[in-house]
Amino acid sequence: MKKILLLLFCIISFSANADAAIKVTPTVIEMDTKGARSNYVTSSFNVQGGENETIRFKIYPEYFKITSKGTMDMLEKTPAEDSLLNNIKFVPSEFTLQNGRTQKVRLTVTDFDKLPDGESRLVLFLEDVAAKEVILPYQNKDVTTKLIVKTRVGIPVYLDKGHVTKKCEIDLFKAEQQGEKLVCNMKILSEGNSKIRYSGKTQIIKGRTLIDEKPLNNNVVGAKNFLLTNEILPMDKIPDDGEYKVRLILNYKDENGKTKNLIKESTVNVIKTKQTTI
Question: What is the pairing mode between strands 4-15 and 143-161?
Fold first, then answer.
């Protein structure tokens, strides 16, 4: 009887701060043209593999935009003024990691005078050259399932040039009860020409009493874009039914590195008492 071979191909993409055998530092490259004496700027990052591992990587760039969900939208073949694809140079473009040794990758952004004011970007992908074969267990003895796995790590590269503006606004903040939790729906605007990184916290307040607070999930809002997201708050510290205030305190840094604070509030009627059906 012939055995059937099922081949599955998979590229596993993950960010450089993922829990994996490969370690990249820093995980994000952020540059600006302030103080540049020539028409180029440089940076670098280090790549380290596992102690008992040999793996060969190739590096290639792709352009991306930040979506309204805070994720990368890869637009490799899309021409864009804020793309660094025609300005990036990096060495080496391919290398082998052995026994936990570190490889430094140097990169240069050239001819930045041709770029628009504000932020330009791309992501450098590190992808293993040799695919790995993984045999998967299958209940049918006459079928062998083989998974072909390739892994890649992405390092975002950002460049701020010329007149840069970073301005954030809270367009929507609304809290509502969903079962045993409070869900805070948010729409955060980035009105400048460079991305916003924000942090902060949400608070549950009754009158003048702070009932509970929780740090925000740090996020990124793309330049001249918005982010739709939500925050989940537990209700275990809310003592009674009633009206509560949920406060959003959001922090970000403007183009001068000065911390800005934004505050928005929402009122929610909490019902913790289970109703008895008669």
Answer: parallel
